[in-house]
DNA sequence: ATTATCTATAGATCTATAGATAATGC
DNA sequence: ATTATCTATAGATCTATAGATAATGC
């Protein structure tokens, strides 16, 4: 029953990855520890040797997601083969694929609305993650001053998150595609919906 | 134990109102039938004589919320004492009060992200409600053609919903106020963030 | 007599813990 | 000997139902 130290670390990783997927797919309340551990190929009893509580798992798996998004966006920016990183990020964010695959989507679009009902640790993960998202977007967005860029980043990301959520709430409908299309066009830099004073 | 027909109808109303508040405050999974009925001043046993299931209550209470928002906005538009209905709607939507009082806020900002995980009846309530919100906003928003107005309504409401959700996820923070302020400014018609082709 | 609401409870969850098991790693 | 994971279970939920109770309304 006991496994090697390496395997044990790997198991912990698998639990974190599984949680990150299932929470986004089913919501924090939509999946229990027992089913989650089963999905990870383990049994529920071992869970509390690795995590303090379900709340602790929520905080740690979302921390993972937050870091991964930031580093993926930074890679696009650093990659010389990506000519327009903002366009690249916007079109993948506002794609039908990102709307339809809850398990792999942005955590703000599936889970942020539940955050006010959770503990401080979870709230901090979302608050800090949001700050770093906005810092990255600020460097990509148009604007003649720093303040203008920051405001544009906030306006744009708000619209993205709202558009994804509403497009899912409108699903089965032409409206759903329409919302994504509008948000995509709004993010096309020139002549865009972004504010200029 | 039996009450008058009038009182019985009133009780049903109270349950719907209580549900509308508690679902927004705690999420669909965050409140059980038993506690909900207790909040309404009743006991849980009678619930299923009035509603088919919890899912049925979700659909019906959200239907209520949806109709109420539409009629309140329409009143502002019809009221000659409100000189700028869009500004009035935007500033109350993006107020700190609306951010902080979950129990009375817009259902799209607290509950829409959970909709894809629910049944068809609930999905339809949100889809139809969203359509009517957009129809109202389309009449208020700038734009030289119908298509442009509709696109602007979609862009604006997406930003509003996203801004509220993110401002709550960023709570305790200066960032939270900043997000609301940006969205408010973005909605001030002239020189606004709204798209013009 | 009818029926709106009550009490009580079945059966299925859920989070968390206790202690057994068996393989690792000293 | 240590310990990662397992089985089993406590105790608290949750949705939904059954049948009792007592006031309405014919």
Written account of the structure:
The structure is a homodimer. In chain A, helix 4 (about 55-80) runs parallel beside helix 8, helix 8 (about 120-140) crosses helix 9 (about 145-170) and helix 9 (about 145-170) packs antiparallel against helix 10. Chain A has helices spanning about 5-25, 35-40, 45-50, 55-80, 85-95, 95-100, 105-110, 120-140, 145-170, 175-185. Chain A is mostly helical. The first copy, chain A, starts with a helix and ends in an 11-residue tail after the last helix. The first copy, chain A, is globular, with a radius of gyration of 19 Å. At the A-B interface, helix 7, helix 8, helix 9 and helix 10 of A face helix 7, helix 8, helix 9 and helix 10 of B. The structure holds a DNA duplex (26 and 26 nucleotides).
Average pLDDT for all residues of chain A = 93
**What global shape of chain A is seen?**
globular
Query: Any low-confidence stretches of chain A, pLDDT <50, length ≥5?
Result: 188-193
Classify the oligomer.
homodimer
Q: What's the helical proportion of residues of chain A? A: 55-70%
Rounded to an integer, what's the Rg of chain A over CA atoms? Answer: 19 Å
Report how far the terminal alpha carbons of chain A are from each other: 65 Å
Taken as a percent bin, the fraction of beta residues of chain A is under 5%
Give the chain pair forming the largest contact, with residue counts: A-B, 52 and 52 residues
Task: State the secondary-structure class of chain A.
Answer: mainly alpha
Largest sheet of chain A: none
Helix count from the secondary structure assignment of chain A: 10
Task: Write the H/E string of chain A, N to C.
Answer: HHHHHHHHHH
Number of strands of chain A: 0
């Amino acid at each position: 029953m006991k496994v090697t130290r390496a395997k044990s670390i790997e198991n912990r990783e698998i639990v974190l990855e599984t949680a990150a997927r299932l929470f986004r797919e089913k919501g924090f309340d939509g999946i229990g520890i027992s089913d989650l551990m089963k999905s990870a190929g383990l049994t529920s009893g071992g869970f509390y040797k690795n995590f303090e509580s379900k709340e602790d798992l929520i905080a740690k798996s979302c921390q993972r997601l937050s870091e991964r998004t930031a580093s993926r966006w930074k890679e696009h920016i650093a990659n010389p083969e990506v000519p327009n990183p903002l366009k690249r990020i916007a079109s993948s964010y506002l794609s039908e694929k990102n709307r339809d695959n809850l398990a792999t989507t942005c955590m703000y679009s599936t889970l942020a609305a539940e955050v006010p009902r959770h503990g401080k640790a979870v709230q901090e993960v979302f608050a800090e993650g949001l700050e770093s998202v906005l810092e990255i977007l600020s460097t990509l967005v148009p604007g003649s001053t720093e303040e203008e860029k920051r405001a544009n980043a906030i306006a744009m990301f708000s619209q993205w998150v709202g558009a994804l959520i509403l497009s899912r709430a409108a699903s089965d409908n032409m409206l759903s595609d329409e919302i994504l299309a509008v948000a995509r066009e709004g993010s096309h830099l020139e002549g865009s919906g972004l504010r200029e004073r």
